[in-house]
UniProtKB/TrEMBL annotation:
Official protein name in the record: Undecaprenyl-diphosphatase
Pfam families linked: PAP2 (PF01569)
Gene3D superfamilies, per the entry: Phosphatidic acid phosphatase type 2/haloperoxidase (1.20.144.10)
Keywords associated with the record: Membrane, Transmembrane, Transmembrane helix
Transmembrane segments: 55-77, 118-137, 144-166, 186-207, 219-240, 246-266
Domain Phosphatidic acid phosphatase type 2/haloperoxidase as annotated: residue spans: 145-259
UniProt keyword Transmembrane helix present: yes
Length: 277
């Protein structure tokens, strides 16, 4: 027997349910897992939820996610060192920096510096908090704040661990645009945090957007912001290209982990509203 959840005709009752429930991405039910690995995770999570409840399961998956963040960072360090020793992609660092120096102008330097400051350790957390709190108030849900807090905490941890393990020196000050920075160069915290924060914002927005064109534009805008933030770090001579490339990779990987954790929570949480027949 068909239900309104199975229809694609935009009936009012379907839209009403979707508007209040983050489990739907367009017409896709995020609690339906298509892969065997996904179904296995949900089965284990549901079994655990019967014993300890859904919220302890969420806390446990968050701890596992943090462990994965550290493991991803350690793995990226090993890959980076192997590539650097082979003079592979690291061979692009100096040519790209010289190309950036060649196109700098005082006005362009000022504009890019103003933009890159958005991804700094002060402004970016404020922007993330404002967006998350605004969405939480509008939706009367705490999940935007929780997701953003987990995502930003993980990206910060990955940045700290990566810098501590590698300790790479930044480009020479003579090739950089002030104000200068002295912390280790690998990975780029600006690029990593921008990818994660923009990704979480895009994810939260597309959960409530009905049109695929709107969702595509949202994801494209988030990606463009993250890419521009990373390139700004190279343009200003504050990071090598490989610092940014690895930061983007780490950010995307951590974002996938955070979204998976959220989907697991949606799959095991108690039913809080009746389904439309």
């Amino acid at each position: 027997m068909s239900t309104s959840h199975d229809r694609h005709d935009g009936q009012p009752e379907w839209d009403a349910v979707r508007a209040e429930d983050d489990r739907y991405l367009g017409w896709r039910d995020l609690t339906v897992w298509k892969t065997a690995a996904g179904r296995m995770m949900v089965t284990l999570a549901r079994q655990a939820a019967r014993w300890i409840g859904p919220y302890p399961v969420l806390a446990l998956t968050l701890l596992i996610g943090v462990a994965l963040a550290v493991a991803l960072t350690a793995a990226s360090v090993e890959i980076y060192e192997a590539v650097a020793e082979a003079d592979g992609i690291a061979g692009l660092d100096q040519p790209v920096l010289q190309a950036a120096i060649a196109v700098r102008t005082p006005s362009l330097d000022t504009a890019v510096t103003a933009f890159t400051n958005l991804g700094g350790p002060v402004v970016m957390p404020i922007l993330a908090a404002v967006v998350a709190i605004t969405l939480a108030i509008r939706r009367r849900q705490v999940s935007p704040v929780v997701l953003m807090a987990v995502a930003t905490a993980g990206s910060l941890l990955m940045t700290i661990v990566g810098k501590a393990l590698v300790g790479r020196i930044r480009p020479p000050l003579a090739d950089a645009v002030p104000p200068y920075e002295s912390s280790p160069s690998f990975p780029s915290g600006h690029a990593l945090n921008a990818m994660v924060v923009a990704g979480v914002v895009a994810y939260l927005l597309v959960l409530r957007q009905q049109q695929w064109r709107t969702r595509t534009a949202t994801v494209a805008a988030a990606l463009a912001f993250a890419v521009a933030m990373g390139l700004s770090r190279v343009f200003l001579g504050h990071h090598w290209l490989t610092d940014v490339l690895v930061a983007w990779t780490l950010g995307l990987a951590w974002l996938a982990v955070v979204i998976t954790i959220h989907r697991l929570y949606l799959s095991v949480r108690p039913a809080d509203r009746p389904q439309v027949a």
